[in-house]
Every structure is written in C-alpha cells, then in structure tokens.
Amino acid sequence: MARSVVRLEDQRASRFPDRCVLSGVATDRAVHATAVVWRGRRWILGIPGMVPVLGVVHERARVSLPVSTRVWRTWHRRNVAALTVLVFGAGLIAASTVRQAGDLFGVGLVLVLVAGTYRTRAHHNYWTTCRLSADRATVVIEPTHPEFDQQARELFTRSIRR
After folding, report:
1. Is residue 17 a contact partner of residue 152, using CB atoms and an 8 Å limit?
2. Of 51, 128, 146, 151, which has the maximum CB count within 10 A?
C-alpha cells in the first residue's frame, strides 16, 4: 500500500483518480471523507468517531475518495454487523440494570467490547485516513492502492503545472 497526496484545489474542481483508493479497480463512485489537520499518530484517525471529534478542535476539509462498489459493500456489511452486536450488547447491559442481573451485564460488556474491536478492525482494513496539511492545500491519504497512487501523482503533477 502507498501514501498518496491530493490537492484540495483538484478536489474542489471534482478532479480525482478514477481508481478505487483501496482495490485499484476502475470506478466512477466516490464517498466523502473528512480530512483534519493532525500531526499525531495515524492510527488515532482510524478509530471510529475520532475524526469528527478532532474536527471540532482542528481545521478540517471534506474530500472525495473513489471507492468501488465491492469495497463499499464489504465495509458497510461489516459495519452494520458490528453495530448490531454493539446495540444488542448495550441492550443487555441496560436490561441488567433493570433486572439486577450481573450475568447479563457481563455478557453485554463482552459483546460491546467484541463489537467495538470488530468495527475498528473493519474500519482499519477497509478505510483510509486523510490528513489535511497545515496550509490546507493538500491532503495525505493512506493507505492507498498503488494504481490510485499513480493516478494521484499524475494529477498532482498536472495540477501544479497549471
């Protein structure tokens, strides 16, 4: 996998690679992601829900990333499964407080932890992180597929020659 850089100017003009950011297959679909100014460890941006929290404190920008239908469906299916288990576990925890049953609390807590771990893993395997540069001109996307990276490099080079 690679680390790619795209210019926000290209993003605003709807110019981005036509290869999926993760699989490298040709696609005409894109998703919106949020890039934040962040100098810390990259894995923190992979924690579900962390980017919106950091976006409150740090500068942010919305970017479009090309994603194939297969990659999107796989991520979405795993996300829904994790959230379903998470809600069920939270329901068991709530029921344990009403019924005064410690065993329900224990099972619910285990399910919540397993669901959170699974969702983080699915997010890590099927998503990218986007870091906005301090001058808000470029976005670093990682990890990316080499074919996406090649197109991003060509686009970047053409963009700075304009």
Report:
1. yes
2. 128
Which residues, at least 6 apart from 59, have a Cβ–Cβ distance to it below 8 Å?
Answer: 36, 37, 132, 136
The tokens describing 150, both together, are: 């090649």
- pLDDT tens per residue across span 61-88: 899 999 999 998 998 899 899 999 999 9
Q: Are 139 and 5 in contact (CB under 8 A)?
A: yes
Six token digits for residue 140: 């670093």
